[in-house]
Amino acid sequence: MQFQRILIAIDNSPHSLNAAKKGFELAQALNASVGVAYIIDIMKEPVIPETGRISESTQNISLAKANRVIDKLVKGYPLPEKLLVLHQKDFQKRK
Q1: How far apart are CA 78 and CA 74, in angstroms?
Q2: Rounded distance, CA 60 to CA 65, Å?
Q3: Which candidate, 39, 74, 81, 82, has a CA 20 to 30 Å from the CA of 28?
Q4: What domains does the chain contain, in order, with CATH numbers?
Q5: pTM of the entire predicted model
Q6: What is the DSSP code (8-state) at residue 45?
Q7: Sheet holding 85-86, edge to edge
Q8: pLDDT tens sequence across 32-47
Q9: Which residues contact 73 (CB under 8 A, 6 or more apart)?
Q10: What is the dihedral of CA 85, 70, 2, 78, to 10 degrees?
Q11: pLDDT score recorded for residue 88
């Protein structure tokens, strides 16, 4: 069985970033594309009492942080040209 896509989940902890590097190495060895998902612990985020939901501004801040961490990870790891790293919406469309 040949893997075509590998999904790597990170949370900005040293352990997850190290695991991501191993995921990139595996993807390179298998000639697979990579998707990176940033995991947010919503239990640590403030919620709106009336709705029990996280505010839109908090969601935007969390998303911006996630994008910064993923960009830093991708730029900080020497990726070969043939290794494709995709945004979530593009990753889901690939076969």
Answers
A1: 8
A2: 9
A3: 39
A4: 5-93 (3.40.50.620)
A5: 0.66
A6: S
A7: 5-10, 33-38, 85-86
A8: 888 888 888 777 777 8
A9: 10, 17, 20, 36
A10: 70
A11: 60
Residue with tokens 């709705």: 51
Mean pLDDT within 49-67: 83
Pairing of strands 47-48, 53-54: antiparallel
Provide the 10 A C-beta neighbour count for residue 36. Answer: 23
64: left (phi over 0), alpha (psi -120 to 50) or beta: alpha
Measured between alpha carbons, how far is 60 from 6 in angstroms, rounded to an integer? 26
CA angle at residue 28 from 22 to 32, to 5 degrees?
Answer: 105
Sequence-distant (6+) residues with CB within 8 A of 53 are: 47
Tokens for 58? 């908090």
- Residue 76 is inside which H or E element, if any? helix 56-76
pLDDT score recorded for residue 45: 75
Confidence of residue 87 (pLDDT cuts 50, 70, 90): low
